[in-house]
Amino acid sequence: MVDDDLDAVLLTRALEPYHPHCRYLRTAALRTAALADPQRAGSAVAARGEFTVPESCCVRGSGHFGALEFAICLDQLMHFTLARAVHGRLIEPFGRWTTDDYWQRQLSDVAVVELRSRFRRGVCPSSFHGELEIRDRGRREDPSGSLIALEISCRFWDDDGGNCSGDLRVALTDLPPAR
């Protein structure tokens, strides 16, 4: 399967849990050195997406890209990126996961622990871009079992200079057994 086709299939599946009117991520592609050279698996993973927010999912007529839309867009790009990284076995600790392992855990075991957003200039919600990078990851044991902690940075911008950025800490729990 060509990467573009794979990206479209994984994006569709990653967005499936969202209500149709809240599916803001239109296209997405993974960017990593591991895609070009499998010997570099483990290097940083980044993704880029194209978004549109035709209307806020909960605030009538706001007309702007606010904190809620920021969180939803980040969440959607994160789930695509994680699914793509798992599918391609691109970074540790996902080397032993299957895509089915991820889909089974997408909602119940991917927990946002912390989210920070910084708005510098208003982003036009009708058409904008986003990037996400998994900056740090680690596996550790805790009293309830293993977990994976991810540190993620992101930014969103439009073609007229609107921009915002943020950081996300995510915990993945109930890890699949080693195979």
Draw up the topology in text.
Elements: H1 3-15, E1 25-32, H2 33-36, E2 45-51, H3 67-88, H4 99-105, E3 110-121, E4 128-142, E5 145-157, E6 163-172
Antiparallel strand pairs: 1-2, 2-4, 3-6, 4-5, 5-6
Please describe what this structure looks like.
- InterPro entries: FcoT_ThioEstase, FcoT_ThioEstase_Rv0098-like_sf.
- GO terms for molecular function: lyase activity.
- The longest helix has 22 residues, at 67-88.
- It is built from 4 helices and 6 strands, in the order H-E-H-E-H-H-E-E-E-E.
- The model has no long low-confidence stretch (mean pLDDT 86).
- Strands 1-2-4-5-6-3 form a 6-stranded antiparallel β-sheet.
- The protein is globular and about 50 Å long.
- Strand 4 and strand 5 form a beta hairpin.
- The chain has helices at 3-15, 33-36, 67-88, 99-105; strands spanning 25-32, 45-51, 110-121, 128-142, 145-157, 163-172.
- It has a single domain, classed as Roll (Thiol Ester Dehydrase, Chain A), CATH 3.10.129.30.
- By secondary structure, the protein is an alpha+beta fold.
- Helix 1 crosses helix 3.
Features:
6-stranded antiparallel beta sheet, Thiol Ester Dehydrase, Chain A, alpha+beta, 179 residues, globular, 4 helices, 6 strands
| Name of the CATH homologous superfamily | Rv0098, thioesterase-like hot dog domain
Task: Specify the biggest β-sheet.
Answer: 6 strands, antiparallel
Taking all Cα atoms into account, the compactness measure Rg is 16 Å
Low-confidence stretches: none
* Oligomer status: single chain
What percent of residues are in strands? 35-45%
Task: Give the N-to-C terminal Cα separation.
Answer: 25 Å
| SS field, number of helical segments | 4
Can you list the strand order of the major beta sheet? 1-2-4-5-6-3
Instruction: Examine the coordinates and then state which fold CATH places here, giving the name of the CATH topology.
Output: Thiol Ester Dehydrase, Chain A
Written as H for each helix and E for each strand, in order along the chain, the element string is HEHEHHEEEE
Shape: globular
**Domain tally:** 1
Number of strands: 6
Structural class: alpha+beta
> How confident overall, as mean pLDDT?
86
Protein name: (2E)-enoyl-[ACP] glycyltransferase
Organism: Wenjunlia tyrosinilytica
GO molecular function: lyase activity
Keywords: Fatty acid metabolism, Lipid metabolism, Lyase
